[in-house]
Every structure is written in structure tokens, then in C-alpha cells.
# Entry
Amino acid sequence: MAAPSASLLPRLGGIAERRRPGLRWGAALALAAAAAAFLVQGSGTPEVPASDASALALEVERALQGASGPLAAGDRYAQLELQLQRHPDDVRALVLKARLDMEAQRFDLAAGGYGKALGLPNSKAVRDPDVWAEYAEAVGMQQGGTLAGKPMQLVDKALALDPRHAKSLDLAGSAAWEARDFAAATDHWKRLLERLPPGSSRHGELAAAIRAAEQRARLALPAGRPR
# Structure
């Protein structure tokens, strides 16, 4: 059963919700990319409870909202670069700049920014599952569009902080799909499904993806059997 095609990879979670044209997590993740649209509304607000937002995420959101209006993305970026020249260990500025780098598909810079923000001593970013999940996405794109290896390790860190974190559950399901572990993909996406309003279009899209993963799991050969 071929995975439905998807030309867009939704960016999930965080403040800078967008769809990036022409990017996927590889052909094996086409269904995951299509299914993930349930999280993104037209306004760019994740369809998850507001209680998910950590203190750092709320700070970032307020900063972005305060910089909106007359300031274009380039202006915000220039301000952040100036701030980091003066205060290179400003965690909030590092995260904001990394998010803008992700929007511009500068994945190396984004991954570096997230990594620095998380590696600083006493960084409050380490308590924010959003930042870990976004770092995972940046590293995944940096390494050619796969969630295998380090990205999944970062997703695990986010889920250790919040086992119900929406973006991390989606990425974990996508990574499991990529690894052809359809039972695990089903498990992650079912936990995510519980967070979505029944009857919503996002709920229906994810339910369809879960059914496809369950069918793949039933058809999968036992471990050790040649494919």
C-alpha cells in the first residue's frame, strides 16, 4: 500500500507555524506529512491545549507578538543578530533566531542555534519540550530529511519532559513510520489523537493515518523474515 503523496511538510508546534513548500521527511514519510496537517489551523495556532506552553515558549510568543506589525521578518532577524552580538548567551534570542532560520530553510543555522540554547549552563530551554522538538526537526532537515538517529533522541528528551507533547508525538510517529515500525507509529499517533477535538477535520485526518499504519502493521512480516 503506497503512502499518500504530500507536497507540503507542516511545521508543528511553537510560535512560527508555517507550511514549507517542497520539503518532506523522505518518501516514506509522505503519509506522516499528510496526516500531520491536523495540528495546524489557518491562523497558525496549534490545535492543542494552551497548557502545553512552557514559560520559555510564552516568553518567545510575547516577544514575537511585540515585534510584529511594522517589523518584517528581516528586521526582526537583524535585531536578534544585534542582540546576540551583545549578549551571545541570550537563550530567548537564540531560540527566536533559530525559529526564523527554520522558516527560511537555513537548517544548519537553526540547528546550531537550538543546540547552543540547549547547551548553555542553567538554560531554561532544557525544560521546554517545544525547543527539543524543534531542534529535532532542524537536525532532521539538516541531515537530509530523516528523523533517524539524533533527531529521535531529541524527540525522546521532549517526551520525557511531557509524554503528551503534541509535536513530539507527531514526530515520534513519523520517525516510527520511517523506520517501518508501524505498531509504534500507531501508538504515538493514537496518544496524539486523544488530544484532538472529535469531529474536527484534524481528528479525521489523523484517524485515517492511524488506520493506514495499523494496516501496515498487520501486513508486516515477523522479525527475521526476509522482505
Summary: Residues 8-219 form a domain with the Serine Threonine Protein Phosphatase 5, Tetratricopeptide repeat fold (CATH 1.25.40.10). The chain has a mean pLDDT of 74. The chain has one domain: 8-219.
